[in-house]
Amino acid sequence: MGVGKTTVGQMIATKLKREFIDIDQYIEQTYHMSIPQIFEQKGEPYFRKLERKTVIDICQHHYNNIVSLGGGAFQQKEIREFCLENCLVLYLDISWESWKARFELINENRPVLNNRSLYDIQQLFNERKHAYSMHHLKINTDNKSPEEVTASIIEALQDN
């Protein structure tokens, strides 16, 4: 959440001439509701079920595209296992200090951050980092522009 998945994903897709799919945007367009509205009206468990169905469906039917998962999606075991078995999983890593510096820019439209203390948010950050530790390729984003992160990813992909 807030690491730049959408920005970097769009840039990679453009450079590699692939389609870019942001799962959160796809869910919002498909169900005609914003993520915060889904959380508020239907609850987080309902959203996570939609998210799981959407991720698996997209990855099964949109092969070779760049897909950006929402910040909490990879915490779902079924999504994580499916992606690790069927996709190339890239992890955009960011330190707590760098992420915290972006907080004011990313806080809006993030229902999982509502009414949480900074301590609680850091706990969530650390919990997610554990799930993200399972990946095929890790790119550190601290002090890097989206262009630099994109270049690092493309270089790493060419090396593999």
Q: What ranges have pLDDT less than 50 throughout 5 or more consecutive residues?
A: none
Count of helix runs: 8
Overall structural class, as computed from helix and strand content, comes to: mainly alpha
Whole-number mean pLDDT: 86
Strand order of the largest sheet: 1-2
Main sheet record: 2 strands, parallel
Count the beta strands. Answer: 4
Integer-rounded radius of gyration? 15 Å
Strand content: 5-15%
- Terminal CA distance reads 26 Å
Q: What percent of residues adopt helix (DSSP H or I)?
A: 55-70%
Classify the oligomer: single chain
What is the 3D shape?
globular
User: H/E series, N to C?
Assistant: HEHHHEHEHHEH
Supply database-style keywords:
160 residues; mainly alpha; two-stranded parallel sheet; globular
Structure description:
The protein is mostly helical and 160 residues long. Helices cover 61% and strands 9% of the residues. The protein contains eight helices and four strands. It has helices at 5-16, 23-31, 35-42, 44-61, 77-86, 96-106, 118-132, 146-159, and strands at residues 20-22, 66-68, 90-93, 137-140. The strands form two sheets. The protein has a two-stranded parallel sheet with strand order 1-2. A two-stranded parallel ribbon has the order 3-4. Helix 2 (23-31) crosses helix 4 (44-61) and helix 3 packs across helix 4 (44-61). The longest helix has 18 residues, at 44-61. It is globular and about 45 Å long. The two termini are 26 Å apart. The mean pLDDT is 86.
How are the SSEs ordered, and which strands pair?
Elements lengths: L4 H12 L3 E3 H9 L3 H8 L1 H18 L4 E3 L8 H10 L3 E4 L2 H11 L11 H15 L4 E4 L5 H14 L1
Parallel strand pairs: 1-2, 3-4
